[in-house]
Amino acid sequence: MHSASTRKIVRAEAKRDALAAPFISIVRTCDLVPHEKLDEKHYIETRDELKYTGILRRPIAVHRIAQHRYPDLIRCDRFLILDGHHRAAAVSDLGYGLILARLVDLFSRRVGIKSWDGERSWPKRQLEIDALEGRLREPQTTKHVVRLDGKEIPFHHYEPIEPLINYPLKHLKRGNMIW
Hints:
This protein is α+β, with helices and mostly antiparallel strands. The chain has a single domain, classed as Alpha-Beta Complex (Conserved hypothetical protein from pyrococcus furiosus pfu- 392566-001, ParB domain), CATH 3.90.1530. The protein is 26% helix and 28% strand. The chain has 4 helices and 10 strands. It has helices at 4-17, 40-53, 85-93, 124-132; strands at residues 20-28, 32-33, 55-56, 60-65, 78-83, 98-104, 111-115, 142-148, 151-154, 167-168. The strands form 3 sheets. Strands 1-6-4-5-2 form a 5-stranded mixed β-sheet. A 3-stranded antiparallel β-sheet has the order 7-8-9, with no helix packed on it. Strand 8 and strand 9 (151-154) form a beta hairpin. The longest helix is centred in the first third of the chain and has 14 residues, at 4-17. The chain is globular. It starts with a helix and ends in an 11-residue tail after the last strand.
């Protein structure tokens, strides 16, 4: 039989291994915090596609930043965009106040932050602080990856994080949500 302290350690270890919420959340676009600047060409392409199709193909990936950890920087919980900066900006700029997002635990051991060339990684806490203080990285600087079976898979190639949902944008207006 395990002691209470052993059970707490096992639960804490399991929590650190958790990757993402098992559901897609509805997040207000005004609560999103980017950590990278937008590439203008990619943004325009994304915005035009969303405007033309009226469909959000995949949710964005976000990490919840709890207000109690940064009381001097934020007054309520915010959501750090991990993947989907261009989608989030386009949805917001097209006048939609909500977006579908998968909540990902940035501090899970299974989540990594690398440069696209793989030569650099960033401290996760620093990514949060820089974003909250408005110090944005250049476009396409960071690649968020899931570590599985010794491989690193980018979020946008990992279906459990960003599944194909094909959700109509018209339902993302406040008070118009249908799931």
